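Quick start: what a row looks like.
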Amino acid sequence: ALYTHIRIFAYDDIGKPMQKTGFKQKTDFLKILAHPTRLMILEELARGIKCVNDIEELLDVRQPNVSQHLAMLRHGGLVDFNQKGKKRCYFLTKPELIKTIVNEVNKIRR
């Protein structure tokens, strides 16, 4: 092979090499989004507050699976909930960010 090592550098606006700081957080955020069920949940929550059973019915996904995905979204700081008795109703913590992401992702059609 002609090249045994290839280095890829990212540069900031003024041409200096960018630091790796922050990229872990960014990739963790993208990993949270990188699942069809979580994207569907976010899309539904962009339309308004939904309880777990509502999400289960809308997405035709079993409750334990919905709860698992909601926990990941909550851990990532994208959703939170209000509790009414035994019902947990979820909402977006960053609605404008999520609506922008959902709108952009929806433009991708294959």
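That is the whole record. Residues 63-75 form the longest helix (13 residues). The helical segments are 23-33, 36-46, 52-59, 63-75, 95-106.
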